[in-house]
Amino acid sequence: MKWKFTKRIIAVSGTALLFAVAPCFQSGQAFAGAVNRPAAIFQETQVTGVVTSAEDNIPLPGVSIAVKGGSAGTVTDGEGRYQLSVPGNATLVFSYIGFTAQEVPVSSRNQINVRLRADQKQLDEVVVIGYGTQKKGDVTSAVSSVGKEDFVQGAVRDAAQLVQGKVAGLRISTPSGDPTANTQINLRGISSINGNSEPLVLIDGVPGNLNTVAPEDIESVDVLKDGSAAAIYGTRATGGVILITTRKNAGERSTIEYNAYATVQTIARRPELLTGDDYRRLIREEGIGYTDYGGNTDWLDEIMQTPVSHNHNLTFFGGNATTNFTGSLNYRNWEGIFKRSGQERFTVRADLNHSMFSDKLRANIQVINRINSAEQGGAGGYAYRQAIIRNPTDHVRTETGEWQQRDGYFYENPVALIEETNSENTYREMRMSGSLDYSPIKDLDIRMLVSHIQTNSLWGYATTFEHTDTWLNNRNSNANRSTDAERRNLLELTSNYSKTIDKHRFTVLGGYSWQDETAEGFNASNWNFPTDAYGWNNLGAGQALQAGQAAMGSYKQKWQLAGFFGRLTYSWDDRYLLMASVRREGSSRFGVNNQWGTFPAVSAGWRLSKEPFMAGMSAITDLKLRAGYGVTGTIAGEPYLSQISYDFRQGNGAFIGGKWVPGFVPARNFNPDLRWEKKEEYNAGIDFAFLGNRISGSVDAYRREINDLLYNIEVPQPPNLVGFTMINAGTLRNEGIEVLVNFTPVQNGDFEWNSNLTFSTNRNELVSLSNDQFENTNDFFNAGYTGEPVQDYTHRVVVGEPVGRFYVWKTVGVDENGTWLVENADGETISINDATQEDRQFYGNGIPKQIAGWNNSFRFKSFDLSVNMRGAFGHDILNFQRMFYENPKNPTYNMLKKAYDPVYGQRLNNDLVYVSHYIEKGDYIKLDNVTLGYTLPANLISFVLNARVYVSGLNLATITDYEGIDPEGVSYTGFDPGNDQRDKYPTTRTFTAGLSLTF
């Protein structure tokens, strides 16, 4: 469609002629006819301005601007600018194909800049589903989509953090402040014991991870939450499917975008420890057996720094309708809050599209190259522990300049640990993918997708002669080196046929997928070197190798996956909707008797808003009921688990013929019946939109049962070679509710406020731990570990009960000697010294019952503000920090200041022990992200199309009663959720300043 410009003569009061340029299409359509009005009504105002898109602030050429109720008008030029003479009391109507029309009163203003929003109703927004897209109105499964305009802004770690708090039922947290760590992600609860519970992540259809592409290079993130949506991916989809779509040149755009930011971080919350002056006061006033070395050292300050990080992203768009490309360069240099910790990351992506034969054949080639490198010291959780327990009166170095070391149980100088350790880790990933789409006839599309991915990592570690390891373990430098490499291949063939006949619309998809992966690695270590200058670069010089003590190992493994799949979608009159799919898939990871499985799914929808009886209800824009059922699988965590295995071990050998012969020892039993974990999920939902989409959202209720859990069960010897066998035994159940509400309280020319609420609940139960062949001896298993010196498990999972419960001695008091009093199995009060394992009881649960998010975006003229809040409720946290450092029993270690406060009216004098006193309510509300931006005037710099500056804060404030560093700095996955480990890299608060430019 082309624009045609027509000069119209519009009569004004019969005396003046106003010439206006009005856009029309080649069909000859133009603005309405002339209007005659008295001249007294008009006070002419010269109005100028720029029209841009609200999503990316790109100027829009060809926007139609007309006077409401009149006929004067014009269109924007190639840079989105316009100029028009209109009455001072007029209202301008801005309209553009694909965007929502906007009315703006002139009010005698001379400059009016307008940002138009994409008209999702007019475009009939599509969402990405498995192997294709679907109109949002036709979706019958639980699918959530978040576009780049709604992403979390500022310094985000990966793709998951972009949508944190924006997808109901998807829990994303950041339990570590380590710049090399990733976000933690979980969808709809725990889904496996020994299988892979992580969601399947696909980047433009190719398996990857949340760090495969830079966050700035992502266009949208779609989440397939329920079984009916995810079953098309078969064995890998029980944990959900996350579809990441990268940015591409959608048309003939030729622009360059540059985005950069710099950040500063601080610790989210510091533990309040005894200072050197506190030591001297306790020695003087109470005779506490501390040793005063005369100093005042803040050991946390000694190992921490104020990290300054920066990120740069350069994106190129170019080409034409036939051949276009997108290229991006991303460089990230992040420092950690611990000294000598950080990471550099460099990512390059190139995407080329070409069409030919009247757009019947379309080709795409994409290359992604990623390099992560980290040169670090010994910073980490153990160094943090040493900084906590170190005597604050001690000094970092001796008077002669050496590291100050003291004898003690796991007691080391944390600064020396960091400075006298060197490590280097380099990870490289090269991804190459290509696709051909061919449309031989109308409505038929045939596609071939191939990809090859190579990754390799090289890791080196070495300590110096000044490291604690030298005098503690008699090792003159300890060094090791390891390398890992993977090769992954993918081939997918799909054919898609779509047809509309009268009121019937259907799509048929058929496909084949083949995938194989090979992984291998090598590692070696040595110690007792003649010099520490070698590091890890001359392992053979260490004497431990000659003494037969050094370690060395290697591995290689391979597995394959093949699948056939098909799907049918059907719509009648946009009212009655159906989707059905099936996948037949086989994997080499399972036993020879069960290498293939079938994964069906079906879902249906009813759009009530399209029914005739709803015609008079103008307030209801859309209303749809959905229901679905789907089966997905969980693939085994490792290959060869079904096969028998033997190890050669020195300790199990025999002395034969004057030589020691290594033993040939069974390591794994044979199980040809090992098969997939099988998740069956039911989902029912409702989608709604009211008042012209000013209010919209969805509500989903689900119930999922994971059967044939992969479980390492105890078996008798003989007949089995090993005492444990990996089998399929047991059932795990999850159910919950998810709510999403979007609403726009205010929307006019100068001010707009959009808001989004998410809320979800989840409850789970371990239904069984046995199968027809094996009856488990116990109806429970224990999980979690406190570490030394307490050395105890923390959780127990029982058949018929929820997952995540702490199993602990419940404290009810402290006696006059400072000993814990606990409640026994009969409800009686006894001393902890007399308690047995049978006296433990369930106390609290580490999994939140409710998760909520509230996201707001505001725009006032050229200013924009986003405020994101999140919260989790109904769960508990085991505070390891208090359990280890809030008990004054051991004066060798430093303590929290509260350690000497009375507990139940008495001061503690008890050995460290795991009791309920240290389990706290973990509820929190977090002001997670606040971003304030300003878009500079479009004509400020002639060659700059758009310029925006912003400041942002991440993890700004937390409202909680929890006394630890951060209630979210805790793992909520696995079977020991809520354990706030003492060896940790503390979470941080991040402040960011950024700049975005478009040329």
Radius of gyration: 33 Å
Poorly predicted ranges: 1-42
Number of extended strands:
54
> What's the overall geometry?
globular
Give the termini separation.
Answer: 26 Å
The oligomeric state of the chains shown is single chain
Number of helices: 10
Strand content: over 45%
What's the average pLDDT?
88
> What would you call the structural class?
mainly beta
Helix content: under 10%
Largest sheet, in brief, is: 22 strands, antiparallel, barrel
Q: Care to give the gist of this entry?
A:
The protein has 999 residues and is mostly beta strands. It has ten helices and 54 strands.
Q: What is the strand and helix layout of this fold?
A:
Blueprint: E1 3-12, E2 16-25, E3 44-53, E4 64-67, E5 73-75, E6 81-87, E7 91-95, E8 102-105, E9 114-116, H1 120-123, E10 126-129, E11 132-135, E12 143-147, H2 159-162, E13 170-173, E14 184-187, E15 200-203, E16 206-207, E17 218-224, H3 227-230, E18 241-246, E19 255-267, H4 276-286, H5 299-303, E20 308-319, E21 323-335, E22 342-356, E23 361-376, H6 381-389, H7 414-419, E24 421-438, E25 444-463, H8 468-473, E26 478-501, E27 504-527, H9 543-546, E28 552-572, E29 576-587, E30 596-607, E31 620-634, E32 645-656, E33 659-668, E34 677-690, E35 695-707, E36 710-714, E37 724-728, E38 731-747, E39 751-768, E40 780-783, E41 795-798, E42 805-808, E43 811-814, E44 820-823, E45 829-831, E46 841-845, E47 850-860, E48 863-873, E49 876-879, H10 880-885, E50 919-921, E51 924-935, E52 946-960, E53 979-980, E54 988-998
Parallel strand pairs: 3-9, 15-18, 49-53
Antiparallel strand pairs: 1-2, 3-6, 4-5, 4-7, 7-8, 10-11, 12-17, 13-14, 15-16, 17-18, 19-20, 19-54, 20-21, 21-22, 22-23, 23-24, 24-25, 25-26, 26-27, 27-28, 28-29, 29-30, 30-31, 31-34, 32-33, 34-35, 35-38, 36-37, 38-39, 39-47, 40-41, 42-46, 43-44, 44-45, 47-48, 48-51, 49-50, 51-52, 52-54
